[in-house]
What does this fold into?
Amino acid sequence: MNSPDLPHYLACAAVLFVLGLVGFLARRNLILMFLSVELMVQGVALNFVAFARFRGNLDGQSFVLFMLTVAACEAALALALILALYRTQASLDVSLWQNLREDDLDATEDDEPLPGIMPEAPLPSLPVAGIAPARPEESNRV
Amino acid sequence: MFELSSEVLSGLALCVPVLPLIAAVVSAVLGSTRPSLAPLVASVGVLGAFAASLLLLLATAGHGSGAHIFHYGTWFTIGHHSIDWEIRLDALATAMVCMVTFISFWIVIFSQGYMDGDHGSARFFSLVSLFVGAMAILVLANSLVVMFLGWEGVGVCSYLLVGFWFRKPEAAAAARKAFLVTRLGDVALLGALLLLACQPGSRALTFDAVFSAHLDAGIVYFVLLLLLIGAVGKSAQFPLHVWLPDAMEGPTPVSALIHAATMVTAGVYLLARFFPGMTGESVDLSRLDAIASVQDLAGGLGAITALSAAIMAMGQSDLKRVLAYSTLSQLGYMFMVLGVSGEPRGEHLPQEVIGVAAFASIFHLLTHAFFKALLFLSAGSVMHAMGHIIDMNRFGGLRRLMPITHASFLVGALALAGFPPLSGFFSKDEILLELWNGSLTGGPRSAFFAILFSVGLITAGLTAYYIFRAYFKTFHGEEKIPHEAGHHAHESPRSMTVPLMVLAVCSVVVGLAVGPTGILHHYLSHTSHWHLHESAFSVNIPMILGVLAAVTGVAVAWMLHKAAASTAKKRSMGLFESLADNRLYIDGLYLATLVRPLAALGLVVGWLDRELISPLIELGATVPRMVGGRFRSAQNGLLQFYALAMALGLIVILAMFTVAR
It folds into this structure.
């Protein structure tokens, strides 16, 4: 078996990128969209590394280090934004935020609304046996 | 009197304009939080300037002819010439700045009482300080450009202070009128500076450079003509006099300071510098001729103003307006005597004649500043007590109610009318004497000077009449108090009466102290280009005629006052009074010939702009709007739609590259 050649790496990177792109276009959950973006970034990063490897030049490698750093910062920022958005609408559906359209256009209505939040399954009611355990208050309620 | 080193003199001279400017900034900044401090700051600043100028006066008195020039820095440079921050200190500038700061100080003190309780009083005191600084720059500047800076500065302060109560429509309109009309003169003055800047000899634009330059007689004529127009605008002479009566809408201390004592005399000051200065040492006849023809114009305009303003003052019922027209008329006197041109007279050179004429006008300028400020402040005191009513028909017989104001107004009126030995007597006599001497030479202009002299004499009589008419109406007869005065019709507080007393003493003493003793004459003879020959004070014919005219005027005023008091019914308005009441229809004439046609033109142009040009422009604007409208629906706010568009765009671009290869 030959060791993988440059086209293999490039194909793999292209697959990663296209998966990310499709995910970004098709999913409506903000977190999943964000993960798709990360996927695309990794695809590009793979390209860099592959070219660095096969051209015998470390520029691409060092570039990727920076990309990873930036991606980490961006992740922190994006998740914080998503959290803030969630707090306003109690949903992660991206189509809820279309306020930046032209004034005279109507909001785009959804033909297939996402399923709403599932009602919580009722807790099993058990006969009282001893002291109820102290339930800690949920600290990170979102 | 005593010697000061050049450095000390330089520092003192710098203090004169700078201290009031600092005071202006400080009181403006403090005004928002501590308005009660503003008058204090302003009075300290102006007092400092006065102290500095008094020291300068004493230090330069008695020795050293010519001018000291102090250099502080460079303003800007054009080519090889730089406009410098320089002070040119000579006898005339020192005397003038001393008078300005002295009167300003007492007016600031007076204003503390007068403006008490006004919401904008910090703004008022800041502007007054700024005015004093600008006036000092005007008087002391060495470069004509810096002088122009001060000239415009006092104009701006005048505008802001006339419109001090800007919520009152009349005040706002008066401020605008004052600014625009004086602007006509300012443009002419700027023209004179540009003309001088174009001449190789005078390009440096300092007084000495201009006076010593070898200029063409034609250039001299045009420069002086433009300067005369500038002076006519600033000093409110016919035909640009219309702004001054309206400027009385400002607070009364402002009228006293700017529109009687200082700013309006800037034009006289300018001409008193330039007429002798331009003559220089030259015996060039064409140049002297050019100067003389501008002087004729100055004298003629002065005579028209002096007489017509006196006539207008006679019919006014508004006390401040009487004083405003009186100011016009007195400034007319100063212009008249500036018109005495240098025909060689006897053993005197033309330079000497022009110098003496300039001296007479400056002497009258100085004494007039004292007694006119006094009259205005007295009127302000009356207004203060009468609840800001200034119509003389609404009050009367105030002499028992306001004894100090009464006394000070009487002193001012006597000085204005020219009764010996008050200050107005000596200076007015000096003017009449110069005109009289001019008419006796038998030269080609002696008839003109004879006319000027008779105008001066008639105006002296009219002056006495109108000021005593106002005096009798206000302080004599039956006691009448308008209801606006409420229960507080009383003598003004001490902060207002003390300045009145000080200025009253000055009005009595100044003329006597500096006129017949020759002190002022001797001091001002050090002014550069003023070739004053020694002259002894003596009783002469014009003096006797002048006093007779004044006495007649007062007597007529008294008789008419008595007659009006005995016949209680109001007389129908005669032709004369209706003329005076309508300001000789000059304002109406300007309105009909200038303002209305321009306003109509403005309406037409505005209509064209709205109805023709705007639609054309908007037609052009519809094209991008329509094109943009096609694509606007793409902006639907959906994030994933944008992402899809980007992805498709990317694919299209990649496809194009592929096909192209």
Q: What stands out?
A: The mean pLDDT of chain A is 85. The domain at 6-94 of chain A is CATH 1.10.287.3510 (Helix Hairpins). Chain A has three helices and no strands.
